[in-house]
Amino acid sequence: MDATAQAGLSSASSELLQRTLEIWQAGGPSMYAIAGVAILMCGVGVNVLLALTFGDMRPRRASTIREWIESPESIEDGGLPALARTAATSADAAAIEPLFDEYASRRLEPLESQLRVMKVCVSAAPLLGLFGTVTGMLATFDALASGTGGEQTMGAIAKGIAEALITTEAGLAVALPGVFFHYFMSQRLEASTDFLANVQSAATEALKGPTQTELA
């Protein structure tokens, strides 16, 4: 890329940044609340995504579950592999369910709580946008009531309308992707819950005899 192209790209980036800042400022105080909700929503969603992608709860093949149950080395791995092996070699079949319930309470319930927080953020974003819409319209009506119809009055009216529209758009821009992101993460969590149930079922079957450890 030559110097002219680089200068043009830098100029375009500066103009875009300046325009973004102008829009942000025109949105009024509600924009800060919407931004805070967006940051919280994304942070919680990414945390859940990482936990379900790289943690013990990510779904694995049935053959992997069999390896956990049949291999003594899985005890050394800790986490869900160790739980599966311990449950499959337990002397008391009734003790299996409490083991998995305790594991689910430690690993799944915090993620469920975070998804509830994420859902609240998704619902709050458009409401904050609506709040900005109301304050913008109030500013517009105030300008109409107190102005004399000159250029200053028209500027105040335009500022109020801009605040009303920008905050509405910002709230929807945060909420719409959040809806799909929350749905995606809910499906991932449901798959992990089903996977944990499969591991528990396999461990229970293993106690009935070596020939019944094969998964359906």
SSE layout and pairing:
Layout: H1 3-26, H2 30-54, H3 62-70, H4 74-77, H5 79-88, H6 96-146, H7 151-206
Helix pairs in contact: 2-6, 2-7, 3-5, 5-6, 5-7, 6-7
Radius of gyration computed on alpha carbons: 27 Å
Overall helicity:
over 70%
Taken in chain order, the helices and strands follow as HHHHHHH
Class by helix and strand content? mainly alpha
Largest sheet: none
Q: Describe the global form.
A: elongated
The proportion of strand residues reads: under 5%
Helix tally equals: 7
Tell me, rounded to a whole number, the average pLDDT: 85
Total separate domains = 1
Per DSSP E runs of 2 or more residues, the count of β-strands stands at 0
Distance between the termini: 58 Å
Return residue spans where pLDDT drops below 50 for at least 5 consecutive residues. Answer: 211-216
Task: Describe the fold and architecture.
It contains 7 helices and no strands. With 216 residues, the chain is mostly helical. It has one domain. Helix 3 packs across helix 5 and helix 6 runs antiparallel to helix 7. The protein is elongated. The termini are far apart.
Key attributes of the depicted protein:
mainly alpha; single chain; 7 helices; elongated; 216 residues
Question: What is the compact description of this entry?
Answer:
The protein has helices spanning 3-26, 30-54, 62-70, 74-77, 79-88, 96-146, 151-206. It is mainly alpha-helical and 216 residues long.
